[in-house]
Amino acid sequence: MKSLLAALVFSVALPAVAQPAPAKVERAWARSTVQGQDSTGAYMTLTASEPLTLLGAATPAAGIVEIHQMKMEGDIMKMRAVDALPLKPGAPLLFAPNGYHFMLMDLKAPFRAGGSIRMTLRFRDAKGAERTQDVTVPVALAAPGGHGH
Questions:
Q1: Number of other residues whose CB lies within 10 A of the CB of residue 32
Q2: What is the spatial distance between Cα 42 and Cα 24, in angstroms, rounded to a whole number?
Q3: pLDDT in tens, 7-55
Q4: Torsion-angle region of 60 (φ positive above 0: left; ψ -120 to 50: alpha; else: beta)
Q5: Beta strand pairing status for 62-73 and 76-82?
Q6: Are the beta carbons of 63 and 32 closer than 8 angstroms?
Q7: Handedness of CA 92, 71, 55, 133 (dihedral sign)
Q8: Per-residue pLDDT tens for 91-135?
Q9: φ, ψ dihedrals at 140, nearest 5°
Q10: Domains in the chain, start-ordered, CATH in brackets?
Q11: Could you say which of 10, 40, 127, 128 is the most buried, measured as most Cβ atoms within 10 Å of its Cβ?
Q12: Residue 2, Ramachandran bin (φ over 0: left; ψ between -120 and 50: alpha; else beta)
């Protein structure tokens, strides 16, 4: 009984080992809104170090977050929801206006330039385990660093 108690105390005393972030996140930003606007986009570049599938995202700043893709079909720009996106190790996946992006809908408050929102990205790894990653996303009128994409 003493050894069981000692093992229990030892295991509780050990600090939790932090999991490394599933993906490197760069150039994250969300577009600011005007009064009455109830949706906007969030953008970033994700680079995985292992095979991952992006399953979605959530934020307390919006009631709905979906992965969307915009693309030209003939002369018409079309936007559609995407259920999941594979990330190849070392290959950046760009989320930008007029391409893949996170569509944030049912906004809880206007997004003001200079502020930020918290997002939680949800992934599945090659073993089938789901992992999350919290990201702070600055709100801006346009992409940071003058990148027009």
A1: 17
A2: 16
A3: 444 444 555 556 688 999 999 999 999 989 999 999 999 999 999 999 9
A4: alpha
A5: antiparallel
A6: no
A7: positive
A8: 999 999 999 999 999 999 999 999 999 999 999 999 999 999 999
A9: -145, 165
A10: 22-143 (2.60.40.1890)
A11: 40
A12: alpha
Rounded Cα gap, residues 113 and 14, in angstroms: 42
Quick one: pLDDT at residue 49? 94
Question: In b/e form, how buried is each residue of 109-129, taking b as 16+ CB within 10 angstroms?
Answer: eebeeeebbebebbbbeeeee
Check residue 18 and report its DSSP letter: P
Q: In 3-state terms, what secondary structure has residue 4? A: helix
Amino acid, res. 55: L
Tell me if 23 sits within 8 A of 89, measured CB to CB.
no
- pTM value is 0.82
Q: Strand ranges (DSSP E) for 36-128?
A: 39-48, 52-58, 62-73, 76-82, 85-87, 93-95, 100-107, 116-125
